[in-house]
Amino acid sequence: MTLPNRIDLQIALQTFHELGLDDGDVGYEYWSQVGRLLTRAAGMQAQIDVLSTELEKCRARLRAAK
Prior knowledge:
This protein is mainly α. It has one helix and no strands.
């Protein structure tokens, strides 16, 4: 199983920060939340990748045991 390409979130997070500064208090809070959501999603994807790799290993062990 190959893992998907990793992307650097820094550009997106910096852009969200700049958009927030341009939009005032409400805009800043909105773009901050979008940035946190993106960061959490990336973390969840990393966990999914690790679990998928572990699942493949378990499946391989089960096939070998048969």
